[in-house]
Design goal:
CATH class: Mainly Alpha
Distance between the termini: 18 Å
CATH architecture: Orthogonal Bundle
Number of strands: 0
Length: about 110
């Protein structure tokens, strides 16, 4: 797991705790994760450094605006604006690890 993904996931997790929106963020990330798994095009799109951040932001707005919480949507746009959208799958995984730890769930 990259340090970048850990940092972003931790920040999102802390925000979720502060705003009492962990469950909502978990749902948002599940939607993103499902699209990454179901659509190879979307997965390639998020990882493609040749697509400009502004173009990615427009496409992500069409896909997710109004379908995610404001916090989840802003997180996705932040990753994009910072040229970190390729870390989305790792951020989702790390967020889930933090959530499991928070809920005292142990994985074998």
């Amino acid at each position: 797991m990259s340090r970048v993904a850990k940092r972003y996931a931790k920040a999102l997790f802390q925000l979720g705790v502060e705003e009492k929106k962990l469950e909502q963020l978990e749902n948002d990330l599940t939607q993103m994760e499902n699209l990454l798994k179901e659509s190879e095009d979307f997965s390639l799109f998020t990882a493609n450094p040749l697509i400009s951040e502004s173009e990615k932001a427009k496409i992500l707005a069409k896909l997710f605006k109004g379908k995610l919480s404001d916090t989840g949507y802003n997180f996705l746009q932040l990753l994009t604006s910072k040229k970190r959208s390729s870390f989305l799958p790792d951020c989702i995984e790390q967020f889930r690890l933090l959530l499991d730890e928070h809920r005292n769930i142990l994985k074998g």
